[in-house]
Specification:
seven-stranded antiparallel beta sheet; five-stranded parallel beta sheet; 616 residues; 5 domains
Length: 616
Amino acid sequence: MITFGSSEEKPSRAEQLSLVVNLASRSGSVLTVHATKLGAERLAKAIAATRDDRESTPLVRLAEQRLHADHPLVSLLRRGVAYHHAALPIDVQIEIENAVRSRQIDVVCATTTLSEGVNLPVRTVVIAERGYYDGREKRFVEMIDAPALLNAAGRAGRAGRETEGWVIVADEPYGANPRSALLGLEQDREVHSTLFTPAALSALSEYEALVSQTSGVLLDQVPEVVDGFLGYCWYLAEAAAVLDPTARVDAVLEGLRRTLAWNQLPSELRRRWELLAAKLVETHQGTDPERRRRWSQTGARLSSNLVLETVANAARPGVLGLPLQGAADPLTVLAVFLAGDGLEQLLSLMPERDRRFKRKRYGRTDLINVDLRSLVLDWVAGVDLALLADRHLSAVEGEDADAYRFEQLSSFLAKVCEHHLPWTIGIVMDWIRQDTGVEVCAALPAHLHFGAPTPCAVSLMNGGVRSRRLAVSIGEQAERQGVSIESTRAWLAQLGLATWRTDFSAAPAEVADLLQYVRNPAENIGQRLLDGETVFIACEFSSDTRSADELAIGFLGEADPPRPLVGTNSSGVVVAQLHPSIHHDVGMLIDAGFQLLGQDVDSEGERQLAIHLQPE
């Protein structure tokens, strides 16, 4: 029995694991890997409960801005602990990763999304959970299989920071013991076709009964696996129609015979799938050529194309009736596509669980009513995430209502607004344009994806600015001042780092993104300096009096990172601050150890700084 505080009750699993993690963190940073978001959050809270607050960091300030000061993650970050999963905003995820690299965070509790492709320098990886016990089914549901386990374990001892790494696999009730899990990594893995699963065979039998009385195939209410198979065959049939229309059936069957399924299925099952493919070709041949071409290009299931056609037909009159100014406004155009049951139709193409909201995290499923159309429009209008959560998900309840409210919102935005709607509405817009010759707000899918109301905000996020809040704020000011898309970079660079911080509340990572955005790669300043060339650059000089000294180029010592680049004289006085557009190139050279010097000169009638590498 372990005593926690004054209690002698049996500690929770998270409390038990916190002892192991805290011990491991003494020798380096720790990544704990979880099968669920909830598991990651619980362990992070248990670890933070054993620590004291630390000095505030830029990450804490960013989280307070994005999530709200009362969000559970903020209190964890103050203690050097974080959780990381897909329900957090992308800019917060990125800053957590950067904080681990800079050692502001020494423990991060994450789902497998962090261990897949993210290079973090951690010394120890703790596989905290590989699944969960399903009390109804009376079995352990494995969510981290052997390949995922191997990938997660490979994060330990990352090159460049650690010389060795440790992997700890926690024991789990009802799950395979840690030794068996690790030994299982050495076994070869088999790959099986989805057409050979019991569910696929059941769906095939169901669909065969539906189409037995027809010459072709039915394209609505198709079982999912059959729908995917038909979509693949449709694509093959369309390709064959272009190359040799007389050999469509043979071309489709030949394409199928080259797949994994046809190497695994017994002959009788292959014959049944092939008969279905032949029926599909008959339907394809009897379809209008333009319609079948469109369907083959969407990447959607065939039944989904029927829904998209319905939405396009309903939206067409509204699109044609838009005034010139309204046709360019993303919110006005989006409202046309979402009118009536347009949004409901589009959302019917994705799993119901991805578009619903629960009142409480635990207990029976109790859904709350959310005006999804209003939520989507507010997202594109640039409404702040915290305000979106308060405005639309106030009915969420429970001890962790704030965290669960934001978790559900982030999941909906990622799946619906950032991916599903841009794709489906983009298809519908393209079809209407092809039919009518009318194009409205061609960038609408990007406005949807980024949740950005202005062209400037979209340009910023397309250009590498990761913070939606920052892009929206800059976009609104640019629009008020009449700044064009083409002038955005020059306008932003002219404002400078100090204004970015004061006017837009830009955090360090956001300032770094803006420095990269305003860079002009065509000037190729870094390479020109390395080649021995003297480069003339614009600067903000601190005095009208010209400096006769040769200036040392470097970072301003006391400033918040990323620090401005300045030129200082022999007395250490700052004479000039370099233009933000060259910060990235010159800063990389200084970070690499090169010494740069500058001279205050006139160049083509303009006061500039002539910089060059210090001779060896």
